Amino acid sequence: MSDLATSTTTQTDGTLAHVAYVLRSNPVTLLAFAMFAVLLVAAILGPALVPYDPMASNAALALQPPSLDHWFGTDNLGRDVFSRVIVATRLDLAISVAAVALSFLIGSVLGSIAGYWGGWIDTVLNRLFDTIMAFPLFVLAMGIVAALGNTIENIVYATAVINIPFYARLVRAEVNIRRDAGFAQAAKLAGNSDIRVLALHIFPNALPPMMVQVSLNLGWAILNAAGLSFIGLGVRPPTAEWGILVAEGANFIVSGEWWLAIFPGLALMFAVFTFNLLGDGLRDIVDPRQRS
Amino acid sequence: MSLLSIKDLKVSFKTRRGDVEAVRGVSLDVAKGDVLGIVGESGSGKSVTSYALMRLLESNGRITGGALSYGGIDLRTVRESAMRDLRGREFSMIFQNPRSALNPIRKVGHQVEDVLRRHSRATRSTARREAIRALEAVRIRDAEARYNAYPFELSGGMCQRIVIALALACDPKLLIADEPTTGLDITTQKTVMDLIADLIAERGMSAIVITHDLGLAAQYCDRIAVMKDGEVVEEGSAERLFSAPRNAYTRKLVDATPRAGASVRSLLPAELRTPAPVLEPTRAPLLEVRDLVKTYQGKSGPVHAVKGISFSVGKGQSVGLVGESGCGKSTTSSILVRLADPTSGEILFNGKDLAKTPARDFARDPRRPKIQMVFQDATDSFNPRHTARQSIGEPLARLTGLPAGQRRDRIGELADLVGLPRPLLDRFPHQLSGGQKARVGIARAIAVDPEFLILDEPTAALDVSIQAIVLNLLVDLRAKLGMSYLFVSHDLHVVRLLCDHVIVMRDGEIVEEGPADQVMETPAHPYTQELLAAAPAPPVLAEPASSAAE
Amino acid sequence: MTGRLSTIGLRITHAIPVILGVVVVSFLLTRALPGDPAVYFAGAAADEQSIAEVRTALGLDRSLAEQFLVYAGGVLTGDLGNSLSSGQPVLQDLANRLPASLELTLTALLLSCSIAIPLGVLAATRPGSAVDHLCRVLVTAGVSLPTFFTGVVLIYVFYYLLGIAPSPLGRLDFIYIEPAHVTGFYLIDAAIAGDFETWVGALKQLVLPATTLALFTLAPLARMTRAAMLSALSSDYIRTARAAGLTEDKVLFTYAFRNALLPVITTLGMVFSFTLGANVLVEKVFAWPGIGSYAVEALVVSDYAAVQGFVLAMALLFVALNLLIDLTYTLIDPRIGFETK
After folding, report:
1. Model-level pTM?
2. What's the angle, vertex CA B126, arms to CA B122 and CA B127, rounded to 5?
């Protein structure tokens, strides 16, 4: 019959071809993946790669401008800025990854429940998220860290808390539009219980937009953590962390020792920029409208 | 001399897979006062042709060849500013889905005024009066009040009237109607089409009606051009096309168009018309519905979706449930398939009440495999991450406990049964055509040998030629497997092809029920009569067209 | 019109549970955490006796419910406790410093809206053009800028290297005299006083921090404007308007832009949230005497009441701004009143 004769020609799985197409047509995404690889190498191998001990001070070499020996110059205690910037990668990435993972997990569970069952649970959770979002988020993070105590773990918790509503709302919306979709109903007719329908049929389909959110959020979490340590919360000197390095360097900017603040700032920007590019790239890959 | 002439028009679109030619050399003429129908299935290029002549193609589309002339003006070369003067004043257009065709946050009266003032048909001081007059011209009652309404406050049919008022406000000489009734209820479709036809005749306009429905085109157009794959395959008067189609595709389309007196086999091309299976339904009840009520809490008080209906479906019987959107037929079907709970009432299945088991727990009920459903929207009803094989295999795995090897064999058998080539089983939904998805959906539903199958408008989204094939497949399966059907649809003509017994619903109540032939030939209730009259009526032919041609 | 009015009333009543939630959360932040709040509130230099005093003063020896009532009562009467460092009531400190923060934030928002919205519209109407590419680069780069770093770079370039910006120390150089207090906004007060020199002086101080903040908020606004405009332009009603021959200006502004404005207004809420947060960092970088730098100073000396007062004040300010956004939305979109009826 005629509708079958068409398109029996072999058509290999579209997903890989689609990824390849997006990468080819958008080299920026490829660049983003490369930048991400650089970050990973710095985070994992950083301490082994750096030329100097990031903590070793040397008063004789204080405030040296960038040179062949010290690529990013030295700080007021004679510590090598390059080594400190590279070593800080691990801490900054660890904070943001931990925070985002936590909010992803909690947000997914709460959002799925609210989106699938609705009712009073949905109302209560909605009120809760409304309340969290009623605070300017950075300010809430400040308040949480100030109240819980000034430690790195608390920076992670605070960053996670302010991110949870985004994930929960996203998952809720994605689950909600699919709750009564034909395939969810068909899965029930096939003998799946509500939990199975939610976990095996609906949630996996909500993952692609979540991955985009994760990527964009990682950048934002880094900014947030760096901002907190910039105002003296969480990470403390002499630990090397981009936000603190910029804060310390800022004191010297008016006297022209620019390298102290600029290099860690650029590293921070590089990381955030990478995650944002990656998020945009992922958005292109998962956007169903771009699918054939 | 013709008002509009299209010569060898070619349009192509830039896509990821290179340039796609959507229109390949179309030539058409529309004379003054002429109403031309362009009929074709999805992807035939019928809409693109009209957008090309309005020069409203999407940004990736381009006219690559041919000539377009309107009253001596070359529409391909005329400047954009001049083109804007022509649109709305000389020719204008109405669209499908009227609600989204209107600016959602602007009063409809103001939207009409915008057009009037643009073409200097009104000044600031006369705009309101002229706009109300334009609304009255499309038979809108209480136009003064409607002037201040926003589109979301109006019904779909009313929105379409506003769109028509907008299009006709400046008395254009040519009206292009692009699927003007898609997205509207059948009875509204009829009123809207009658209104358009009246206005065209009244003002002596020319018109192009673009539709997928050959029956509708035949009823309202002087001439019909049939398009396929970007080309006009045949052009002629409606009577001639129906009585003696010259082109094989036209003949297929004519055959597949449901019409009074046709049998399900006669929808198929002549060479596929095997003798129809003989079906012997019994009245021994399989399913009995008693006083089914569904009330849920709406924004403004309780909504009575189903108001105590009772009916029964016999073993091997096929029952049609017909009504317009909002009549309660979908609510009823989702209660019967146990995806929703009724407010009260009994659903006796083989004598036992199904309503006693809440829908939430029904997934684990031993009767789950016995009642299955074929969904309306084939795309939406498949998990986009599952292949056809996984979709068909899921109920087998969950409900039958067949070991993996036997499951594989069974999936293959099912594919053969519904006529799906086995290699397609490993495709994802987006890699299958509409007809193929319909087959996968049917295979999934019959995988666990149900006794009772609910068909929820299974062909509503399909082109007529595919619809014909799917309907026949359903008839054959019922004969082969001895299932009972509940066929839910808005289209009486389609229901009649498949059902022995018809139930007509309106506002949550059954208004008429009886043997299919009786309800169709001698409808007792005025609503049934209205529904029947609203369906487009292609010319009735004494002898089915293609058997005469054989 | 009565429907519209009742919708507005409804919106305002909707803010009440949110405000209640905010008060509860800030109560939880102050009282219900591990550790002894009395120790926090008494500050780093406290001894046993002062801690005990604080405990009774805060009512920490009573039940949590009672404590909440006392706290809520305090908030209602404007009692946020006393700042350890200044010795003043926190409310008064905040009120003194709020105009500085508002002047900075509002200037920055005005600046970024007036650039971002036209840029987004231009980019959407000319997809693939130079403006579109510029918009995309700005958008991606903009959200990657840490505000405190942008501020440091701007100071280095415009103060240290070029020498055209004044030293980044507060709202007004010491050579000028503060204008008489009317609104607390120096630009407005100086204008009222007719003191042109002070006005210019205040403006000069304001330019760099406001630019820093604006650069940060530019990106999300431009991105949303572009996306909203693109989706409006591809909608059915634009096709209808074009098919009726309406002029391109009418199509773009009356039809597309007004519809595109709705999601942009919604985004403004998020942008406000970012701005108020980033405000803290910018105030620290530029030594701007607003409530942000007040909080940062309080953090350093563990002045707990001041920090929590600041968090609560910011939240209430944000709730008020969101209410304003909601009301604007209600005025533009006729569908809102209908849905809530």
Report:
1. 0.83
2. 60
